[in-house]
Design a protein that fits this description.
Elements: H1 2-28, H2 39-57, E1 68-70, E2 76-86, E3 90-97, E4 106-110, H3 122-128, E5 133-139, H4 154-168, E6 173-177, H5 181-194, E7 202-206, H6 218-225, H7 228-235, E8 237-238, E9 249-251, H8 253-263, H9 265-280, H10 289-297, E10 303-304, H11 305-317, E11 327-328, E12 331-332, E13 342-348, H12 361-365, E14 374-379, H13 391-407
Parallel strand pairs: 4-5, 4-6, 6-7, 7-13, 13-14
Antiparallel strand pairs: 1-2, 2-3, 3-5, 8-9, 9-10, 11-12
Helix pairs in contact: 1-2, 2-9, 4-5
Organism: Rhodobacter flavimaris
InterPro entries: AB_hydrolase_fold, PHA/PHB_synthase, PHB_depo_C, PHB_depoly_PhaZ
Protein name: Polyhydroxyalkanoate depolymerase
Amino acid sequence: MKGMMRYDLMETIRNTNEWMGASARAMASYPVWGLAPHPMFKLLSAWGRVTERSFARMVIKPDWGIRSIAGADGRDHVVSVETLVDKPFGSLIHFAVQGRAPMKRRIMLVAPMSGHYATLLRSTVASLLPDADVYVTDWHNARDIPVSEGKFDIEDYTLYLVDFMKYLGPDINVIAVCQPAPLTLAATAYLAEEDPAAQPRTLTLIGGPIDPDAAATEVTDFGARVTMGQLEHMVIQRVGFKYKGAGRMVYPGLMQLASFISMNMDKHTAAFKDKIVAEAKGEGSEHDHHNVFYDEYLAVMDMTAEFYLSTVERIFKGLEIAQNTFTVNGKRVDIGKITDVAVKTVEGSNDDISAPGQCVAALRLCTGLPESKKAQHLEPGAGHYGIFAGSSWRNNIRPLVLEFIDQNADNGPKGKVTPIRAV
């Protein structure tokens, strides 16, 4: 009950702050204050609007917001999101472009399950849609999954990826972003041995901790410094009474958000101060840069305790992927068994979460692949977010990834590939 009480306390604090913001906004917006125009009322109203919105976003799953794309035929094509495979802890979704012929490039984006929803890849999806059919792993919030559905750890995650790849077929091109990179590599190796015909055509790993010891970051230092017992005691709680997953052991999203913000506290503090001042001056807008970024950044989801703890213990501390000793259901997954899948790694020179050297280690592990099927790219000046969603992704990395896919198109079904379009 202690963990459940702590969980509900965090939700109570969040709810209280949302209420305080709404109350301040409403009180400071009364018309009567127009008789005594004082900047304090505008500032209080602005603080209330920003505070209410910020704390409300923390429990709202963002919408994908991709309504249509421009087609090669000069027409706008409506985009709809359809669920292809629905599992308790995650789904495989497809961005169906109405009125467009099936594309030769088919891409499965493996979204991180590290505190944010898959919509964190919204701009990545939007940039790829004009040139490919896009599928995404949409992980579910653990607080909404009943305890009766059982556990979900990194082995279960790997098997989910295996099932998704099998469903999509061998002509799929997989792109794993950040946290899932090592497990996506393991899932591909699992298929190489268990069902070779179901392997993807290409595998692109972007900024993932394949070998966390290859380059130190604040994340790896924390993982090395804290024991598993300390970690479990500090961050694991039981879902409170408000949600369907009541009683499930989780790493709460609100606690993860506090950790995210603490890593760049000065930057976030300045951003909120500037936003409040802008609102008070009447210069704020619904879809300005601040709202667009923080509506996504503040929307967090719970992770199952077993997934988070097994990630830290086996990927970061035990280095099971880096040392090629990872097991699924007691059977070792040998990354050296990958012989037909072209593998590319992408890193950012300024990535402070998965530093350069951590992801490219995947190529060293692929001992069964010829050098002609290996590629790597280090993006100068790019941080972690920029290598999959920022200008570095749009202008430099995206064209290289699509070119890599096209270069290896002869590994699967033949067919004409549509030229890459600028975004």
